[in-house]
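Reopening this ticket.

The earlier resolution said the output was attached, but the attachment link was broken on my side. Pasting everything inline this time so it's all in one place.
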Amino acid sequence: MQLKLKLKYGKKKFLQLRFNINKIKKVKKQRKWIELNKEKSSLNEKVFCIGFAKTGTTSLEKALINFGYQMGNQYIGEILVEDWYKKRYNRIINLSKSAEAFQDAPFGLPELYKILDKEFENSKFILTIRNDENQWFSSLIKYHSKMFADGVRIPTKSDLENANYIYKGYALDTKKMIYNFPEIPLYDVEYYKNTYLKHNEEVKKHFKYRPQDLLILNISEENSYQKLAKFLNFKVNKNDKFPWANKTSDYQRNK
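Inline output:
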């Protein structure tokens, strides 16, 4: 059974999110979880992973777990992408009070790091990057093809509308909010690459005079695990490596 849920602050059609009944119940339960858990880890010293998706954020998450960090609920974070889009930050801040470290959406989206930096003083920020924008875009395309299409071609509007990830249509809604679809065509090469590069440069500029608060990390580089450990004041062996995770080859299309 399908049901249209019109958000109070949503006027455009693409903000009328489609849930089935079970999804609505799950979303409500997850948002209630934020309220119940926001004081459990409310200290200001957080770790925010603010790199774009497909820059090693899941491997970084596993490394932080190995270091003993309590990770934020990623499912809830992804639900709150629309809050980021509408600049309604209260629930994102509440989520940030519920654990010690956070990665992926919405934390890696443009401009949010400025809000988090102001709200949580003395926190650490990690900007994960790829070797260049071409490698990042290629990885994104391969991942989305595996997740939302047939593993070969670039996903279409129909693919994204019908993908059952978070809720049916979420994949397309996020393209509208993050990459300005339909004004910008889906997977427009230059626009996506420029969005990635702009975010990275703006993060670097924001922390220019506070290098102790930002780590720029390419997890494929030699000794990247040691760099992370040093940044967070952990000791690791010189031969330790990142726990690789979320490789595109591990994924199959959602049915």
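Reporter confirms the inline version is readable. The longest strand covers residues 2-6. The mean pLDDT is 85.
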